[in-house]
Amino acid sequence: MAAKTLFAKIIDGEIPGQFVYQDEHAVAIRDLNPQAPTHIFVIPRKVFDTIGASATEEEGLLGHLLRVADQVATQEGLSQGYRLVINCGAHGQQTVPHFHVHLLGGRQMSWPPG
Prior knowledge:
With 114 residues, the protein is of the alpha+beta class. The chain has a single domain (6-105), classed as HIT-like (HIT family, subunit A, 2-Layer Sandwich). It is 20% helix and 22% strand. The chain has helices spanning 6-11, 59-75; strands at residues 19-22, 26-30, 38-44, 82-85, 101-105. The chain has a five-stranded antiparallel β-sheet, covered by helices on one side. It is globular and about 40 Å long.
Protein backbone atom coordinates (compact mmCIF):
# COMPACT_ATOMS: atom_id res chain seq x y z
CA MET A 1 0.00 0.00 0.00
CA ALA A 2 1.36 3.42 -0.95
CA ALA A 3 2.04 5.96 1.76
CA LYS A 4 -0.62 8.61 2.25
CA THR A 5 0.03 11.91 0.56
CA LEU A 6 0.34 15.12 2.56
CA PHE A 7 -3.06 16.21 1.23
CA ALA A 8 -4.69 12.90 2.16
CA LYS A 9 -3.35 13.29 5.72
CA ILE A 10 -4.82 16.82 5.90
CA ILE A 11 -8.17 15.64 4.50
CA ASP A 12 -8.23 12.77 7.03
CA GLY A 13 -7.45 15.14 9.92
CA GLU A 14 -4.03 13.64 10.68
CA ILE A 15 -2.34 16.97 9.93
CA PRO A 16 -4.05 20.32 10.56
CA GLY A 17 -5.13 22.43 7.63
CA GLN A 18 -7.10 25.64 7.25
CA PHE A 19 -10.18 24.49 5.33
CA VAL A 20 -12.15 27.12 3.44
CA TYR A 21 -14.47 24.67 1.64
CA GLN A 22 -15.50 21.02 1.99
CA ASP A 23 -17.99 18.74 0.29
CA GLU A 24 -18.21 15.00 -0.35
CA HIS A 25 -15.88 15.22 -3.39
CA ALA A 26 -13.41 18.00 -2.65
CA VAL A 27 -11.79 20.28 -0.11
CA ALA A 28 -10.08 23.65 -0.35
CA ILE A 29 -7.30 24.59 2.05
CA ARG A 30 -4.99 27.57 2.41
CA ASP A 31 -1.37 27.13 1.40
CA LEU A 32 1.03 27.54 4.33
CA ASN A 33 3.63 29.02 1.94
CA PRO A 34 1.46 31.32 -0.20
CA GLN A 35 2.73 32.62 -3.52
CA ALA A 36 0.03 35.32 -3.66
CA PRO A 37 -2.12 37.10 -1.05
CA THR A 38 -4.72 34.37 -1.66
CA HIS A 39 -3.28 30.91 -2.34
CA ILE A 40 -5.66 28.00 -1.86
CA PHE A 41 -5.42 24.36 -2.93
CA VAL A 42 -8.56 22.74 -4.34
CA ILE A 43 -8.09 19.01 -3.81
CA PRO A 44 -10.22 15.99 -4.67
CA ARG A 45 -10.85 13.56 -1.84
CA LYS A 46 -10.10 10.78 -4.33
CA VAL A 47 -6.35 10.39 -4.72
CA PHE A 48 -4.70 10.25 -8.15
CA ASP A 49 -1.24 11.64 -8.91
CA THR A 50 -1.75 13.84 -11.97
CA ILE A 51 -4.39 14.77 -14.51
CA GLY A 52 -2.79 12.16 -16.76
CA ALA A 53 -3.38 9.52 -14.08
CA SER A 54 -7.07 10.38 -13.82
CA ALA A 55 -9.55 8.08 -15.48
CA THR A 56 -12.34 9.01 -17.87
CA GLU A 57 -14.88 8.55 -15.08
CA GLU A 58 -13.18 11.42 -13.21
CA GLU A 59 -14.15 14.00 -15.85
CA GLY A 60 -17.09 15.10 -13.72
CA LEU A 61 -14.84 15.37 -10.66
CA LEU A 62 -12.30 17.46 -12.58
CA GLY A 63 -15.08 19.83 -13.67
CA HIS A 64 -16.35 19.97 -10.09
CA LEU A 65 -12.90 21.05 -8.87
CA LEU A 66 -12.94 24.00 -11.28
CA ARG A 67 -16.43 25.01 -10.13
CA VAL A 68 -15.27 24.77 -6.50
CA ALA A 69 -12.27 26.96 -7.34
CA ASP A 70 -14.59 29.59 -8.81
CA GLN A 71 -16.92 29.40 -5.80
CA VAL A 72 -13.99 29.81 -3.40
CA ALA A 73 -12.63 32.72 -5.47
CA THR A 74 -15.99 34.46 -5.11
CA GLN A 75 -16.04 33.65 -1.37
CA GLU A 76 -12.52 35.14 -1.06
CA GLY A 77 -13.55 38.36 -2.83
CA LEU A 78 -11.39 37.87 -5.92
CA SER A 79 -13.71 39.92 -8.15
CA GLN A 80 -10.76 41.44 -10.05
CA GLY A 81 -9.69 38.00 -11.22
CA TYR A 82 -7.60 35.02 -10.22
CA ARG A 83 -5.37 32.35 -11.67
CA LEU A 84 -5.82 28.57 -11.57
CA VAL A 85 -2.66 26.49 -11.88
CA ILE A 86 -2.28 22.73 -12.25
CA ASN A 87 1.30 21.49 -11.95
CA CYS A 88 1.95 18.11 -13.52
CA GLY A 89 5.07 16.04 -12.86
CA ALA A 90 8.61 17.01 -11.96
CA HIS A 91 9.13 19.47 -14.83
CA GLY A 92 5.79 21.10 -13.97
CA GLN A 93 7.01 21.60 -10.37
CA GLN A 94 4.40 19.27 -8.85
CA THR A 95 5.65 18.54 -5.32
CA VAL A 96 2.71 16.58 -3.87
CA PRO A 97 1.68 13.41 -5.80
CA HIS A 98 -2.03 14.09 -5.29
CA PHE A 99 -3.79 16.02 -8.06
CA HIS A 100 -4.75 19.56 -7.00
CA VAL A 101 -5.55 22.98 -8.38
CA HIS A 102 -3.85 26.13 -7.09
CA LEU A 103 -6.15 29.16 -6.76
CA LEU A 104 -4.03 32.33 -6.74
CA GLY A 105 -5.32 35.88 -6.42
CA GLY A 106 -5.32 39.14 -4.55
CA ARG A 107 -2.70 40.78 -6.76
CA GLN A 108 -1.99 41.40 -10.45
CA MET A 109 -0.54 38.26 -12.00
CA SER A 110 2.35 38.55 -14.45
CA TRP A 111 2.73 36.85 -17.83
CA PRO A 112 4.35 34.62 -18.85
CA PRO A 113 3.90 32.71 -15.60
CA GLY A 114 7.09 30.75 -15.52
